[in-house]
Automatic annotation (TrEMBL):
Pfam families per UniProt: CbtA (PF09490)
Source organism superkingdom: Bacteria
UniProt keyword terms in alphabetical order: Membrane, Transmembrane, Transmembrane helix
Positions of transmembrane segments: 67-90, 102-122, 137-154, 161-178, 198-219
InterPro entries referenced in this protein's UniProt entry, alphabetically: CbtA_put
Higher taxonomy: Bacteria, Pseudomonadati, Pseudomonadota, Alphaproteobacteria, Rhodobacterales
Protein name: Cobalt transporter
Organism: Parasedimentitalea marina
NCBIfam families: CbtA
Amino acid sequence: MYSRILISALFAGAAAGLIAALLQLVFVQPVLLHAELYETGELVHFGGTSVSAHPELPGFDLMRDGLSIVFTMLTYTGYTLVMVALMSVAEGRGAEINARTGLIWGLAGFITFHLAPGFTLAPEVPGVAAADVGDRQVWWTATVVTAGIAMWLIAFGGNKISYLIAAALLMAPHLVGAPEPDSFSGPVPTEIGALFAARAFGVGLAAWALVGTFAGFFWQIEGERAETAA
């Protein structure tokens, strides 16, 4: 069982992480680099002179982008390890696990780790005003935990009480509110911040869809291989 979890998570997480990293380099990285030009003061959009929305950006950086790819693969492998472990529990309760149902698991993962915390604590580009990072990490972690429990109750609770508890868990962090800065003083144009948030959510959705699909696929394949070998 443990080897099945580990092998499935490694293959699925590495594959999904690699694709997610490439999507980030193509769609998110240019927006990030653009924001850094305003963060460092190289570009300033306040004043009477208009600023080009299409500056010349650095190309592929082997060290920075290579490490980004590696860390993204490791991060998604960690996420996948948790997902596959939960899949094994769900299968023991009679749930069918394959690539098709894995896609649903992936969407639940996206809601848990991206959409739920991002609903109030939106993805932030460099240079924007933000509250203390420790306070934001605590709120983000609490929101992910409550959203994850809510997703499990919706999927496997099976009664109205479970659904009500799930709805309360999903809303509670946002009713409490995320840590906010005392004032807004960021130098980055709002258009860049909005595009960054949209791209971050889009790439996150694609990545989690791949995580769930790959996890379900490799979990099924490893299960069939184990049955054949037995």
